[in-house]
Write a structure and sequence with these properties.
By secondary structure, this protein is an alpha+beta fold. The protein is 26% helix and 34% strand. It is built from nine helices and 19 strands. Strands 6-7-8-3-9-10 form a six-stranded mixed beta sheet, with helices on both faces. Helix 2 packs across helix 3 (108-122) and helix 3 crosses helix 4 (137-149). It binds adenosine-5'-diphosphate (ADP). Residues 13, 15, 17, 19, 37, 39-45 line the site of adenosine-5'-diphosphate.
């Protein structure tokens, strides 16, 4: 398998739209990287530049220490799995999986062995004689992966591979992709707009917004120490709550509540005394009991947890409590925050 280096990549389309700005990433051999961000932030464009399906406007792409910036796709030894599977309807599953190997005129016996091995890994052995329209969406997605696996490429690219599957199948297929990654020890670059996929699949996440990389790090790093307001709001579900607060006399003061700062937080915010900053609190870091009053407007039971939505004065808040709660609209619940995040209001950057 292989390492990959994306160096100062820019993409400017013919209509002068710049979709990607100065993208930098070194992917280690066998690493699973997930590019995540909202629709239109430049994820697919980045992936397509790696695949060679889009020209690189500026910068360099290195695969295994070789500059492939200008190399055509077929010579890059990369396999891409798309969300629409792109299977040939008139061919059997076997023929679909063997297709690219037949095209490059590999030895027939070797092709046969490779297809059988991939089918075995993906649980498709009994489906090889069927046509794509006889398979479920999940099975078709596995065939699409099988087509990539037989090529033993240097790098696997996935472009939103699960977005056409229903929620339950998405979870199951996600787990299969994880197992596949373990089994093949392959270098993978995976694009999604779904933060859950990013958190559950990635060794490292690249979070993007409007063509710019916002943060690169492990799932825990992005969840626990988001670099800025964008990452803080994008990673985590339900999203982090934000409040404008004034820092004064060891407290964070909002219209409607004041919370005490810990000694460590006071130290961190020493330059912000008298200033307004943004306080971020994850729903799961809000606990019942405390001096912040929430007026409840909805109570959503999820089984092990309950989402309680309400207002703190004029501000919306979502709390995620551990137990089954039965609050009614109009109830008041007292809460406190057991972990807080702070952001500079001007730059949006986390205050460390
Ligand atoms: P994502 O994958 O994050 O949804 P894309 O990489 O598809 O985002 O798109 C990034 C930006 O580039 C968007 O503003 C999109 O409209 C623009 N874009 C994508 N493809 C083209 C194209 N072929 N020509 C012009 N602009 C494009």
């Amino acid at each position: 398998m292989s390492s990959l280096s994306l160096q100062h990549l820019d993409k400017i389309y013919d209509n002068k739209v710049q979709a990607v700005f100065d993208f930098n990433l070194d992917v280690k051999d066998g690493e699973f990287i997930v590019l995540v961000g909202p629709s239109g932030c430049g994820k697919s464009t980045t992936l397509r530049m790696v695949a060679g399906l889009e020209d690189i406007s500026k910068g360099k792409l290195i695969i295994d220490n070789k500059d492939v910036t200008k190399m055509p796709p077929k010579d890059r030894d990369i396999a891409m799995v798309f969300q629409n599977y792109a299977l040939y309807g008139h061919m059997t599953i076997y023929e679909n999986m063997a297709f690219s190997l037949n095209l490059r005129r590999d030895n027939k016996n070797e092709i046969h062995q490779k297809v059988l091995a991939a089918a075995e890994i993906l649980g498709l052995t009994d489906q090889l004689n069927k046509k794509p329209n006889q398979l479920s969406g999940g099975q078709r997605q596995r065939v699409a992966m099988g087509r990539a696996i037989v090529r033993t490429p240097k790098v696997f690219l996935f472009d939103e591979p699960l977005s056409n599957l229903d929620a339950k199948l998405r979870g199951a297929t996600r787990r299969e992709i994880l197992l596949l990654h373990k089994r093949l020890n392959a270098t993978m670059l995976y694009v999604t707009h779904d933060q859950t996929e990013a958190l559950t699949l990635a060794d490292r996440i690249v979070c993007m917004s409007m063509g710019h990389v916002q943060q690169i790090g492990t799932p825990l790093e992005l969840y626990d120490t988001p670099a800025n307001l964008f990452v803080a709001g994008f990673i985590g579900l339900p999203p982090m709550n934000f409040f404008d607060v004034e820092i004064k006399d060891g407290q964070a003061i909002c219209d409607g509540f004041a919370v005490d700062l810990t000694p460590e937080e006071k130290d961190r915010l020493v330059d912000y005394d008298g200033k307004t900053i943004v306080l971020g609190v994850r729903p799961e870091n809000i606990v019942e009991g405390g001096n912040v009053s929430v007026e409840v407007f909805s109570n959503e039971n999820l089984g092990q947890t309950t989402l309680v939505n309400g207002m703190v004065n004029k501000h919306r808040i979502t709390c995620k409590f551990r137990d089954w709660c039965n609050y009614k609209a109009g109830d008041t619940v007292q809460v406190s925050f057991n972990r807080k995040h702070f952001f500079d209001k001007e730059t949006g950057n986390a205050i460390r």
